[in-house]
Amino acid sequence: MYIETINGPEDVKKLSIDQLPALAEEMRAALLKRASIHGGHFGPNFGIVEATIAMHYVFESPKDKMVFDVSHQVYPHKMLTGRKEAYLSEEHYDDVSGYSNPTESVHDHFTVGHTSTSVSLACGLAKARDLKQEAGNVIAIIGDGSLSGGEALEGLDYAAELGGNLIIVINDNDMSIAENHGGLYQNLKLLRETNGQADCNLFKAMGLDYLYVDHGNDVADLIQAFQKVKDIDHPIVVHINTLKGKGYAPAEQHKENWHFSGPFHIETGEPLYEMTEEDYSDISVNYLLKKMKEDPTVVAITSGTPTVMGFTEDKRQEAGKQFVDVGIAEETAVALASGIAANGGKPVYGVYSTFVQRTYDQISQDLCINSNPATIVTFWGSVFGMNDVTHLGLYDISMMANIPNLVYLAPTTKEEYLAMLDWSIEQTDYPVAIKLPGGSVISDGKEVTKDFSKLNTYEVTRHGSRVAILGLGTFYGLGNEVAESLKKENDLDATVINPYYITGLDTKLLESLKKDHDIVITIEDGMLDGGFGEKIARFYGDSDLKVLNFGVRKEFPDRYDLNELLKENHLTKEQIVADIQALL
Amino acid sequence: MYIETINGPEDVKKLSIDQLPALAEEMRAALLKRASIHGGHFGPNFGIVEATIAMHYVFESPKDKMVFDVSHQVYPHKMLTGRKEAYLSEEHYDDVSGYSNPTESVHDHFTVGHTSTSVSLACGLAKARDLKQEAGNVIAIIGDGSLSGGEALEGLDYAAELGGNLIIVINDNDMSIAENHGGLYQNLKLLRETNGQADCNLFKAMGLDYLYVDHGNDVADLIQAFQKVKDIDHPIVVHINTLKGKGYAPAEQHKENWHFSGPFHIETGEPLYEMTEEDYSDISVNYLLKKMKEDPTVVAITSGTPTVMGFTEDKRQEAGKQFVDVGIAEETAVALASGIAANGGKPVYGVYSTFVQRTYDQISQDLCINSNPATIVTFWGSVFGMNDVTHLGLYDISMMANIPNLVYLAPTTKEEYLAMLDWSIEQTDYPVAIKLPGGSVISDGKEVTKDFSKLNTYEVTRHGSRVAILGLGTFYGLGNEVAESLKKENDLDATVINPYYITGLDTKLLESLKKDHDIVITIEDGMLDGGFGEKIARFYGDSDLKVLNFGVRKEFPDRYDLNELLKENHLTKEQIVADIQALL
């Protein structure tokens, strides 16, 4: 096996060009086996095997620096840069992260997990190189799907001005996670169809030099192209035409499903584990499709991740014009929602907590200053969400809940979520966001009669004294468990409160607690800094009540162990009870 | 005078095309007089007078909806939509805001002040129109300078997919606030030079239909063009070639200086009031130019507002390759800074507080997860900054100070600022941001010997007991005044503390205060929610100390009166002292 001889890029260069296709096949076989057992990003990596080999054959990493966008497609690069064991040996599968990672290797320059950043980051590496008057190539590798993001387009525009060497490899597999959306993809198609010869050329229109490689999975062609642009003295785009999922028939045929996969049977592509539990994606799409049929002005919006709200291909067809995928373009998604709401439509934008960060200014300016009644639903904003450092869902409260005019709601059950969503869609006064709880869906079957238009009205769900527990969203249940323990251990009847509203204080209720309570505790599913609990602490700052805030401390944990994280942050029932008892 | 007869768009239509140039001249004369007395955005409005007349001549506002990007260029539109008195009568100059404003008129659809939003917002209006199966044109008017922003490029890309009617007017005056930066401007130039005929066309490459109007200040040509695209059934770009500052010689010649102007002598263009006071822009540019000469890896970065850090044209030339203007592209500015720092350069990105909002995700992901040692300096993040609702500087603490890994510093004097800046540039461990204080520059001439690498170490500058005052940044001086008053009125020696660090707690010092203090107060220059004071309140939540937080409540005030705002938020010495006395 060739792959077993590769301990770094220098070993790739020892092979002849004739041997490289065999290396590619070996890498693909290893990737397939690993994915079938371990899961991970699939399609993006299968398409870029040959390009990665060719780059390491031609360029001299780490002197020449490669920046992989999103870094979903960084597995082949890791295999060739001293980390092959993590792909060849099952016991080492977890030795590496799923993204580029400077702590793993000198061949990785950034920890990257959000899209559309590579060109601008690479411009920075190149600029520093030139300021230091050093030599070397800087190569940004970006998938076509990432091109629609604002930062990528800004970066392409700026790159033309940079002056020195910069090579931008456009890995064009004609797919985003789902199909691409946006006018620029017509131009990529035109360029593919004309072997890169069409006069109308997005990259040239951005001021960039351009080279097209039609056989983007042919390692010899790629080597030739990279040799041509190596040490070039100005920025150039190398547009390579690749096949997403290349080499595994199910993935070539069903590209969207195979962008990311869990463990599966290699022979059939069928998943090893059936996901049967109802989740908030199913709940959202079922509600929205029904609502759309009743009201033609209801429209669901996604920014390149349609299944976050459950809109698989068949559901998208069912929704028709009432479903919009703007492509990876979160800023436009929020502005679009604001515009639709301003003109009497009823938009619902569903987005992962980690990606809603990409649109702070649009939420503040385009939406909230204008008080337009759009709805944003944030998914996986929870310690129970993704645990890669680049995809954490711990920050949406501090980011969003401090934006004026926004009503940010935290349901604790499926029923509350649907009641909030329905209220939000029908009301016309406020921009509203809903933070879905983490963990398994809780459904208590109770009818929700609360009028959410009475802003910032919390609900006492268990009446007691001395200790009041505000359990926000995900952690409302934990709040109840704490109350149970206090009853059992201290014969103390604690008050339990469902706050519902992250963005405002129920000052009347909070004031009333002063009468017969000594301690107020808050539990929230996210970072403490800038969070919900701190507002409660501020409210009681000049009173005799003691306040304890529970949540996650400010940091960027990477691939954390959930139970450890909870323990470290005193987010277990036992710890919270003990902390309260210490104060009693 | 024609302008006196115009009470709405319907009155524009009553004039003959021959009469419209005279109307344009009258409007320009009124704009000139108003600007000379009142100040405001100048160049952008002077260039778009004819286009605005032509649009109102051809389209039927408000059924047809115009969305002005940034809305710096909205004055002529306001003159033609029932608000002419605000431009003709000195006593009514303040009746209108400087931006489009739905509360003023049904002809305005959004409050807009940040760039690059119009296309995406207009897409939303158009989408809602189509969902409601209504008719009407939607027109986005965007300046060439705004095109480099990510949201604008995302919007152009998405617009091609929208399907129905959308008209995107590109007001191309070949200028941003300063000169344009980015490769796409070469393409605009090519299009201007070829009368729109060049095959390589950015807008067509984005999938859009395209029409070019060479005489963008010729009202008859414009009317013809708009008539051609009115009621079109798909999105189209109308690219109009205009002259920034058109009709006023000093403004035509010095476009950058005349983007915005204070009051001036009409005859000479000389400003009425001399600005002689040293400000943080001067301080920054003087320091940085000196530093650049000592160290070729120091590089200053701006995103389209070079003078925020004092880089006027001559200073930009002096800095040479050590000054980078990425154009209006804040996301790329931060990513670039991160990349430069990752490769051993020393980047300093200067940005207005209100615009740093546009790059939350890049600060979090591209910069802070990677812990690259770039420096961001935020200007005008203060109640003493801009007071238009779209340009407030009240939110940067809640946005930035809760991002893990970032060290956000609050200097209280010029000397502290320079010491922090110098430390930040030379250290290699942390991403650092510096929040400049508002109001007049305070310089005490004291040498700053503090070692800022000892993170989160506050300084007690006045030793006392019972009451401790944490005066952050701008309001450190107010903290001292409060202490003086307490001494005078209550014979109480309060402790005064300069926290320096917004992003972390000096737990040792805070703990020590418990010994002999009863009350801790915080004063910060920004919104309370998610701010510095709440972290202090959380820290003392389980203790007997009382905490009072002073800052601005969460809202979007518009064109506020500074003294009223301070009073409403208890940010005067008298109120703070009274609040403390009530607790003593």
From TrEMBL, chains A, B:
Residues forming the Transketolase-like pyrimidine-binding domain are 278-444
Cofactor dependence is on: Mg(2+)
Its pathway, per UniProt, is:
Metabolic intermediate biosynthesis; 1-deoxy-D-xylulose 5-phosphate biosynthesis; 1-deoxy-D-xylulose 5-phosphate from D-glyceraldehyde 3-phosphate and pyruvate: step 1/1
GO cellular component terms, semicolon-separated: cytosol
Q: Name one GO biological process term.
A: isopentenyl diphosphate biosynthetic process, methylerythritol 4-phosphate pathway
Which family does the record assign?
Belongs to the transketolase family. DXPS subfamily.
Q: What protein am I looking at? A: 1-deoxy-D-xylulose-5-phosphate synthase
